[in-house]
Amino acid sequence: MPTGEVFPDGQLSVTTSYFNDAQKYTLSFQISPRMFGSFRYSILDKFDAGSRNRYDRSFDFGYLLMEESNLRPSVVVGLRDFGGTGLYGSEYVAATKHFMDDRLALTGGIGWGRLGSYGGFTNPLSILSDAFETRGDGPTNISEVGRLETDQWFRGDAALFGGVAYQVNDRLTLKAEYSSDAYEAESDRIGFDHKTPFNAALSYGFKNGAEVSVYALHGSEIGIMGSIPITPQKPKFPSGIEEAPPTLMPRQTQAALSWDANSVRQKDSSLSMALKDQGLTLEGITIEGDTATVRFVNGRYPAEAQALGRAARVLANQLPADITTFRLEAMANGVTTSRTTLRRSDLESLEYDLDGSWRSFARADFEDAAHSEAAPIAGIYPKFNWRITPYLDPSLFDPDNPVRADFGVQAAASLEPARGLVFSAAVRQPVAGNLDTSTRPSNSVLPHVRTDSAEYAKQSDLEIKYLTAEYFFRPGKNLYGRATVGYLETMYGGVSGEVLWKPVNGPLALGAELNYVKKRDFDQMFGFQDYDIVTGHASAYYDFGRGYLGQLDVGRYLAGDYGATFSVDREFDNGFRVGAFFTLTDVSFDDFGEGSFDKGIRFSVPVDWLTGAATQGGYGTTIRPVVRDGGARLDVRNRLYDVVRNSHTSELEDRWGKFWR
């Protein structure tokens, strides 16, 4: 039963439960201090006609109406399964109050839908309107699944529920509840025996917050449940395990005196080596008067602020004493993305200041660097990089199987013959997995732009994931450009162009992308199929602060449909990111098919959050209840917003705590 409690802000919780013929897997996220959402994947054995298993996907949403105080309880209003099959469709208002130094928690509430199916009575909301007396029927066929059935919300009979939780000690908790869920569907289809409305559980909690519970369900079943909390704000190694940065040395040192300001061009090798030791590449340097302008590439640190701090200390230790100002130009994919100006005296006075992090940020200046003012270093280009790594390609919670994945080896390489020009390729060889075991045929009435994606796993062995030539450039102030040609992603190749307007110090960015693509052959080698299309979007990005990012994309999708995608992400200061999106286009819900419209949740976990090492990159995935052809967008690499934003003011401010690390 629901309660009037919420998770700590920002917490992810993974829960799994099992009893008899039912399994449930739930991913919950506390989106804000008051708002939370959940994705549930349920497996019910022999639930559907013909003794077929039901693989059910559903979303929940809840909001904390009132926080608990000395006199009042906390109150939560929630929706369950509001955009799925309706199997768990219900709404509730629940209140919880703690006593005995929070060891005792009492909960009471009222529910509708499934939570109003036992001990129900006339809906009290009917005093507002007679419409609340009747509940809608919900989806009647698979093509209607996924719609927002608002004619069900808080309608029909209501029922009361309640419960108590008592914390025996730091580890054990006893729980008992009176449930208003009659388990009607389970009783009718899989023979569940609802003997009593009372349930009970014994829970054991671990030091890391994980919990295991054994429960008795309605007098007829014994089940087990486990949950693991994931706190993005608390990485495994909060301080990192990288080597300490260089300590600032007094200006009048032998290293600084060995420089001749008039021949700095011939003496820049020592600076280049010192920066390389910190994972940075020197690309250009100019000294005019008391100011040094340095262009560099950060090849190590996930936080650009940490790269700036390391670079600034190297300059202070290497450059002559009369150089008082450092202008650091950050680069990404061959273009300058920002210029940060730091005063040498601020570095010296704030290195050991208790509030040095914030003060150093407040004294820094940030501006655009559309055209670099640092003279290039000879011999930087061409650059060549390669790597061989394992890969995991998952497909989670599809309509027939909760987990499909391929595991294998990927070889990737890139060549930069000149600034901004990048040739890239990646080849994969699957070793093991079951992505090719999907037997669900596409029944889409739209062009099969995504629904036959399983064929790419079935008909390929060695796979070219991408093979592209990219050119990145700066058309003007606050403007960025990208042109890409080649095999752009698993299913499509062609030409892609993008421009982005993104001020360094502003929360708003605007972009436009245009693509001409052809569908690749299923073997993921060099051939193409007959399908081709022009697709593209106009995009708006907005940083709301506190880690919340909004995005709106309007345009034409791969199936030729027109519409818009709405996205909201929460990004933590360490780079951990969780988000959700949905797309509405001119494709009708019936033509779209199961799911009614494209939607999903996504998350990405940076490598340094897991390992503590100063390493760029991470792991991310998107979970969709079902993959359809409507609202499908090209998955081109290196879209400009994520390429350039890391060195802009808002991102630097969020992660400036790394400046002195």
Main beta sheet: 13 strands, antiparallel
Query: What proportion of the residues is helical, as a percent range?
Result: 10-25%
Residue stretches low in confidence (pLDDT < 50, at least 5 long) are none
Strand order of the largest sheet: 18-19-20-21-22-23-24-25-26-27-28-29-30
The assigned structural class equals mainly beta
The number of helices is: 11
Global shape = globular
Mean pLDDT over the residues: 92
Description:
The protein contains eleven helices and 30 strands. The chain is mainly beta. A hairpin with a 5-residue loop joins strand 26 (548-556) and strand 27. Helix 3 packs antiparallel against helix 4. It starts with 11 loop residues before the first strand and ends in a 7-residue tail after the last helix. The model has no long low-confidence stretch (mean pLDDT 92).
